[in-house]
Design goal:
The chain has 513 residues and is an alpha+beta fold. The protein folds into three domains: 2-184, D-amino Acid Aminotransferase, Chain A, domain 1, CATH 3.30.470; 190-301, Beta Barrel (OB fold (Dihydrolipoamide Acetyltransferase, E2P)); 335-511, 2-Layer Sandwich (Heat Shock Protein 90). The chain contains 13 helices and 25 strands. The strands form six sheets. Strands 3, 4, 5, 6, 7 and 8 form a six-stranded mixed sheet that branches. α9 (344-360) runs antiparallel to α10 (362-379) and α11 (388-406) packs parallel to α12. The chain is flat and about 80 Å long.
Amino acid sequence: MLASQGPVPQDLGWAFEFTWDGVRSLADVGPAGVRLVGGDRRAIATRYPELDALPALTRRRRILLDGKIVALDACGRPSFSRLQQRMNLQRPSSRVLRRVPVAYYVFDLLRLDDHPTLELPYRRRRELLEELDLAGGPVVVPPYFPDVDGQAVLDTALEYGLSGVVAKRVNSSYQPGRRSRSWVATALRRSQEVVVGGWVPGRTGAGSTPASLLVGVPTERGLRYAGQVGTGFTDAGRRELGDRLSSMARPTSPFIDDAPQRAARDAQWVAPELLGEVSYRQWTAHGRLGHPTWLGLRRGKHPAAVQAPVVLHAGPTRQGADERKLREAVRRAPAEVDAHRVSPHFLYNALTTIAALIRTDPPRARELLAEFAGFTRYTFRSTELTTLAGELENVERYLVLEQARLDERLQVTLRTDAAVLPVALPFLALQQVVANAVGNGIEEVPAGGTVAISAVEMGSDCLITVTDDGPGGEPDLGDVDKRVRAAFGDGYGLIVDRAADTGTTVRLRVPGA
């Protein structure tokens, strides 16, 4: 059964899986061994001897599985280019098996103990598959997500550098060999700004229009090679590039690392001044663009502003991105920023500050970008309660970003008893209180001021105090007070003391650890 291409379905009755780049194959498993059949109906078992373990994992039962043979890159993500090192080897050597191991990602069950399951609903087939408990060794049963927002799964695929999602109707049967609208595949295409460092001419010689471009991204050390782009050009676009590149020629490569020998042999090098944009499927573990397509020139922007993307991964494990982390990522993906808890103006101001530093202080910009990534990753969680330790860590990220914007106008003091770090707090409650102190207390004063944060034991309770020495404005913290009382009872909550021209003190009392 094959998937149709299309956008992520928005109606009810779908389950979602990640797309795993690999070789689609059926595994016919029985007491006598395993027979692997590829998409072209050829037997391929000798190419992947790791999967001889399947009969033992199935306890010698007769089953027919549908899945993909996958090789992982250094980031634990499926890599088709890495798998290609195995695809045409009829009997790989032990050295190749060690260098490029594979796993079988199983996503459907078509026969169980000689009983066909094709007519069963997809949800039931997945339940039977998980009951077999096949995961182990070279076999992976990747997660699937029924009754969730498909966009959340797609967003998670983007976050973890996967190539897309497949939506499957939960009540659909399996239709062998057919391309069905009951399965819908949505591929991710990301975009990236790049700097042109060279080009490969067409067959008519060096004076022709470019057949492909050699592109890179700036680093502290110089321009790093990111890949060769040979698709996406219009005839007019090629002519414009040819005209512009001919006046930018230089005798040596502008890249700090070597481009592949085949591309470099015919390359015409240029000064790294031309900025463009490409779409691509994946940023590889070696820092190269996977399947890039040219989108066009970017005008009016300096090449130094280009940055490579940040892609999250669960670590280079044999079975790829850890299932628990992927499930948690999908669960939190729908969480949106509550405008009453995290100000959109703060997000905008933080990004503006980082953008301004890209030209003047790139290392500092990267540090702040890491802080911003940590802040948003925490903020976009979906949870009711957290710990004081977690809140303080995120508040410190927030204050680092605000100090970068306000400079010496914002001073911070922090005093915390270690004994109270495990206490429970409503999620983002402390963040709201501190943001109020900065926004209403410090930002309004031209000379700036100080925000002081303390957390101490008070009998069996914990008292958290946030003080600013600003103008003593009216804080909007009713939401925090209601959430604290709802969580711990009316004996807990906020007390606000403010005085004109002397500042505001907010005391937050919660049960102790």
